[in-house]
Amino acid sequence: MYTQVITVKNKGLYPRNLNYFTDSLMDTNIIFPLSWEHVYLQPDEIFEFKVVIAPNENSLYNAIRHIFIESEHPI
């Protein structure tokens, strides 16, 4: 099992909509803090979330896995 904490900071002037996804849904779990109730990251706000990768019996242990973080300006 592999665990990584990822920190994101909005250095822009406007709130950003954050989208998270992975290419390995069977192995990867993205854990958000309990206090995270919205999808917009405010200016100068810092957000930390944990990614846990636990290969199962049907997956390859040494396969490359990707976590994608997309930040977009609200319309």
From TrEMBL:
Stated name of the protein: (Mediterranean fruit fly) hypothetical protein
